[in-house]
Specification:
The structure is a homodimer.
Chain A: H1 7-21, H2 34-41, H3 45-57, E1 61-64, E2 68-71, H4 79-83, H5 93-102, H6 122-131, H7 137-141, H8 150-163, E3 172-175, H9 178-189, E4 195-200, H10 204-212, E5 216-223, E6 226-227, H11 229-239, E7 243-247, H12 260-272, E8 276-280, H13 294-298, E9 303-308, E10 320-323, H14 326-340, H15 346-357, H16 361-385, E11 389-390, E12 399-403, H17 410-418, E13 425-426, E14 439-443, H18 450-461
Parallel strand pairs in A: 4-5, 4-7, 7-8, 8-9
Antiparallel strand pairs in A: 1-2, 3-10, 5-6, 9-10, 11-12, 12-14, 13-14
């Protein structure tokens, strides 16, 4: 049912829908009373009645006689209830994803996790696209082979060999995305109630994903060299996790790099406790020099590598990868057929293979690395003048993990910034143990607009009690 | 580790790997003894020793001292163990998928579930591809918005309206495929141990998918008008399923069409027992005239529609859809972000929207329907001469659900046909209750090569005991 008929009624309906999208209202929540919302919206109560009635007719809300209106849906106990905590909308790991993905072009996204479109290798992609109309019929309309494009798998196998890990293309599975790779692995390895270990802080979607699997999550504090080895040993002994999930190359969000000593200790401990390690290699192209890889030290006995092309080539193409021992790849391939009838589009893998072989690709990456280096330096300078300090200065990548001055609360600041059309990523969305309330992750590639610093400066100066939640 | 060094050793290794791919060997299975496999392969035992040692070094197999070699991997109790039964490789629902998806161009696939590439709208797709290099930067590299392309969602909303179901684009979620849509819904609605109801027979991947969710599956026999209403009522009362999963338009594999009376009874019973219905609309474009839709009668109170572009436009593009009540769409959208960071590629949805608006599309569909009609008639004639009879003559679509003569066993025949490079789909892969041992599903679009009938004829004449499993 469309919202066209009456503009005021439509505006009220749209406001309620926005509250649901921003998760200010979740299924089962009570809507504002008719009188109160009429005041808030500056319309007559009858307009709100009309709007609520139409939302009820759509099934979006339900009237409970004598009680008011409630958002529809008894949330099943699965997935969604665990995708993110309901405690506080701004620290919901989900909130940052949804806001960033839905943001219109007028919104600034220093909290998002990807590069602006114009930083990506657009020219190489357009060149690759021009070849597509000449692809054979099968590439245009057939399902992919179960493990995916042999050419792209061979490329990834060569990449592993260059890292010091000789694998065959049959140990590579192409997936619909890096996230989907993690999801498949989760379904393969984990049962509800199992324990997973992550870093504190860690990429927020690890949390949302593990919650969707009803996994109990414990965390180990990061140091500048990787997870704290002593606390890592303790976490393994105390909680007996089935899996440890981490980044290689450049840690998200801290930018830290695993040291050889920590890598070796982590692997030794994992072997002693029969823990599987999943190493998300998504930022490999951004490190200036190679750093230790758990997959390489381990030789794929108990470590699985996940990769993606979303951060260096295109997030639109939807292609990720898993490198693992052959028998696990076989099982994961079956699981991907059962749940998605295959992996990435043959068109997409064709495009990726072509773009990666493009003569300009290496040059583009080198230019990107330099550009990011300048962007990080410029952002750190501006942030420093506001009293915002990095936890460490990263060797590469987009993220700056910074502490706000004067014990300011990042979540409150992020909520307030929404009203200024700026989306920040407050620290606690990255922290299962909620230890990062005073931190923020900034994406240096989205810190070039002066408005980011204007809004940040103003909110850092505002008395904390004035930072009320956005409506 | 590559298989290049010694050709004979490589051949032995490849043969073992093929057994694993075809699931003749699963994790934990014992490999043939060295002596026996040397005889089978016509090589010296030392060659087999070398091959087994190298496979062990790859981690693919493990030696158990005093016992022999075993395929590596303790299969976790999840997913894979339930993706398909181990009883008999040919009735494993998975076997048909894997064989068909991996089949080289020399293999004939009368058992597969899609059209040959040259039947698909190649010209319109190439025209749409030519426009892509001119798309904006964002389409080429950005993540999709959470629900996906507004234009494509509006198109699907209009399609629903034409069916008699007025919905807004906000009630549509674009997914990575029709299968992934079903998978998301499964994760949203179902917990391990829940019961799901399907038709007998039903699309085999429904089984594989439900097993991956550890769902108990019960079935209701199909009639030519839809599920048997009396048995449907009984199944609901006896088993209390959470969900009923079925096709609309043209049933897979029988080709049957839901009658208005059965539709109404099914919906009434579902409401009385609080069962959610998932209606897979994937063959909508193939019906000559519209037939009842449970979503339309229900108005999205408890029915969810799943769609896909894989059968009429392209299986390469990877795009499916869910139409449902708004609060469920919201939750499914969140779940898709957590598990895949979004739905289909913006490039893919752009292509689809363009190709669907192509002036030639309606004409192509009409031509396709006529071509399929001729193909079904021709196939039925040839099959009739072999004593193979259809259960019913379908109004449209590709499938012919047929009984073999003389009580022949379809699974044995399908296994033997592999040796002749023909992939058939034996009836019991479609039947949870295993009632279809004498049936086969033929895809009329893959029945034009005379070799299909030669192989079928020969195997139907061969004494049953001679149909030994392919090695």
């Amino acid at each position: 049912m469309s919202d066209t008929a009456d503009t005021r009624t439509g505006a009220v309906m749209a406001a309620i829908r926005r509250k649901m999208t921003s998760r200010a209202l979740l299924p089962g929540d009570k809507l504002p009373s008719i009188r109160r919302f009429a005041e808030t919206m500056g319309v007559s109560p009858s307009t709100v009645v009309e709007a609520y009635d139409r939302l009820a007719a759509d099934g979006v809300i339900r009237a409970r006689p004598g009680s008011g209106f409630y958002v529809s849906g008894s949330l099943p106990p699965l997935a969604v209830a665990q995708v993110g905590p309901r405690l506080d909308r701004a620290i919901d790991p989900f909130w940052v994803s949804r806001q960033s993905l839905e943001a219109g072009p007028d919104m600034l996204k220093p909290g998002c996790g990807w590069l602006p479109a114009d930083w990506m290798p657009q020219a190489a992609i357009r060149r690759a696209l021009r070849r597509l109309p000449h692809a054979d019929d099968s590439t245009l309309t057939d399902y992919a082979s179960p493990q995916g494009s042999p050419a792209l798998r061979a490329l990834l196998a060569r990449q592993c060999a260059q890292d010091g890990l000789p694998v065959g293309p049959d140990q590579v599975l192409l997936t619909g995305s890096g996230t989907q790779a993690l999801d498949l692995i989760g379904r393969f390895l984990l049962r509800p109630g199992d324990v997973a270990l992550v870093d504190d802080p860690c990429y927020f979607n690890f949390q949302a994903l593990l919650r969707a699997h009803q996994i109990r999550i414990v965390s180990v504090p990061m140091t500048s060299d990787g997870p704290d080895p002593v606390l890592f040993a303790q976490a393994l002994a105390d909680h007996r996790p089935r899996v440890y999930l981490t980044n290689s190359a450049l840690h998200n969000p801290t930018g830290a790099t695993l040291s050889p000593q920590t890598a070796h200790r982590v692997l030794t401990l994992a072997a002693a406790h029969d823990v599987v390690i999943v190493e998300d290699d998504i930022f490999r192209d951004y490190e200036p020099t190679p750093s230790p890889r758990l997959t390489v030290l381990d030789g794929l006995e108990r470590v699985i590598r996940v990769g993606s092309f979303s951060k260096t080539l295109s997030a639109s193409f939807r292609c990720g990868s898993i490198v693992a021992r052959r028998d696990w790849i076989e099982a994961l391939t079956d699981l991907q057929i059962a749940t998605n009838f295959g992996g990435p589009s043959p068109l997409a893998t064709d495009l990726i293979a072509t773009a990666l072989s493009d003569g300009g690709h290496r040059k583009h990456l080198d230019g990107l690395i330099r550009r990011l280096s300048r962007a990080r330096r410029a952002a750190l300078d501006r942030l420093d003048s506001l009293g915002v300090q990095p936890w460490l200065a990263p060797r590469g990548g987009f993220y700056l993990w910074c502490r706000l001055p004067d014990g300011r609360d990042a979540a409150a600041l992020a909520r307030a910034a929404l009203r200024d059309s700026v989306i920040f990523a407050p620290g606690n969305v990255f922290s299962v143990a909620q230890t990062a309330g005073g931190f923020m992750r900034f994406n240096a590639a989205h810190m070039t607009d002066p408005r980011v610093y204007e809004v940040l400066a103003r909110l850092l100066r505002a008395p904390p009690e004035t930072l009320t939640p956005a409506d």
